[in-house]
Amino acid sequence: MRLTLDIWRQKNGADAGRFETYSVEANEHQSFLEMLDVLNQDLIGQGKEPVAFDSDCREGICGMCGFLVNGVPHGPENNTTICQTHMRHFHDGQRLRLEPWRAAAFPVLRDLVVDRTAFDRIIQAGGYVSVRTGSAVDSNAMLVQKNAADRAMTAAACIGCGACVAACPNAAAALFTGAKITQLGLLPQGQPERIDRALNMVAQYGKEGFGHCTLIGECEAVCPAKIKLEVIARMNGDFVKAVFSKRAEESAGGAG
Amino acid sequence: MSVATKTISAAPPSPSRLGILWGSAIGKKFLMALTGILLSLFVLGHLLGNLQLYFGKDSTGAWLINNYAKFLHNNVPLLWGTRLVMGVSVLVHAIAGIQLYLAKQSARPIPYHEKQSVNSTLPSRTMIWSGVLIGGFVVYHLLHLTVGSAHPDFVPLDVMHNVSTGLRGIAAVVYLISMVALGFHLRHGLYSLFSSLGAGNPAISKNVFNYAAVVATLIALANISFPLAVLAGLVRG
Q1: What are the residue ranges in chain A where pLDDT is below 70?
Q2: CATH number of A117-249
Q3: Selecting from 3.40.50.720, 3.10.20.30, 3.40.50.150, 3.90.79.10, what CATH number does the domain A2-109 have?
Q4: How many helices (H) and strands (E) does chain A have?
Q5: I want to staple A168 with a disulfide (CB 3.0 to 4.6 A). Which of A98, A172, A192, B193 is the partner?
Q6: What's the gap in Å between the CA of B210 and the closest CA on chain A?
């Protein structure tokens, strides 16, 4: 099948960027990124600059890839990364527009590649648990309800690709931040830092310049890890509870 | 003997808990959900009271809706207590909503060339505009049927007369459009407020999503029935 691609080309953060049109011969067995590999081989053969796009595992589990195809993050197949989207979902003669994630917190580095270190800083702000070192704890010494374990693992499926931010009209990172807060907050190991986690991650979220959540649900529809909107409610609840339960620093320490 | 003095500079006061709430998007949404509940309860109470338009007259020949108006106006704590709570709620709800809307403009400075909506409802994407419309309508509605300055022939406390002469022509159109906006706003607000308050159990949120649509539609239709009843000649003062 022959496809026409309108691809966003941008040399660097200072470049204004523009769409450029390419034609490529694809077959239905290729993945979307393999189709782009073929295009890039053509471009290199013609002495042109290949299209920059992120990818790593190409199995849909690492969270590196992602851009919009015809206005939908990760393309027309919902709940699938673009690397796991195959060309059989497209037809001969189709025109596709490839556009990078757009958010103030995700500046474009080059073509379809954006800088997602804002997510890393949100994780650094509270996406961790502190554990005692020393001899290993007995396995299963800490009991976890099946229901809580299931929901924590479902939230932990988040691969941090950024499609939720890309899909949101407010460029909110609520689904991402909510997933991380939910994943740790549902487990006993996550309890000691639960208050600080909610306060610090939400504060960092704000500093990074992401917008607010209005629960329209666009993020849930495109999320390749099928993260549910419930994680946003948990983030909201944890944050509000944290605001009301946080004690002043000087009274928290005590005399020891 | 000299005494050494040391000035202990006080640490900057940490913001109050309410200040932290107001300073964060999640906190603002929390306050919007709380005020949204109060405003929704008022909408419901207001509607139930207004349904007395359809109940006719009492044994003395007075319109029941007019008796209701007199009851409210004679009950000063109830009347002004409600007005105070509603006024504060509208201010908090509207200021928070407009501030969040303005703040989000900077979250995506370069818009998409092409963007599709995959999953969201139209009411959920237009909350700010249905909200602005309702805000403007409330001002008009107060001038029209409470103060009376926007009414061609206003008689204080004669609700039946004011409604049956007032909800005509362009005013009826304004009421119809505004009540559709109210239905839109409630359709998403009654659902999303649960998440803003931290309640998002997936087992019930699907039901909440559906019930919100039903309740919003019923409230909008019941409100729309008033101008339609006047236009159809069913309500005559």
Answers
A1: 247-256
A2: 1.10.1060.10
A3: 3.10.20.30
A4: 9, 7
A5: A172
A6: 14
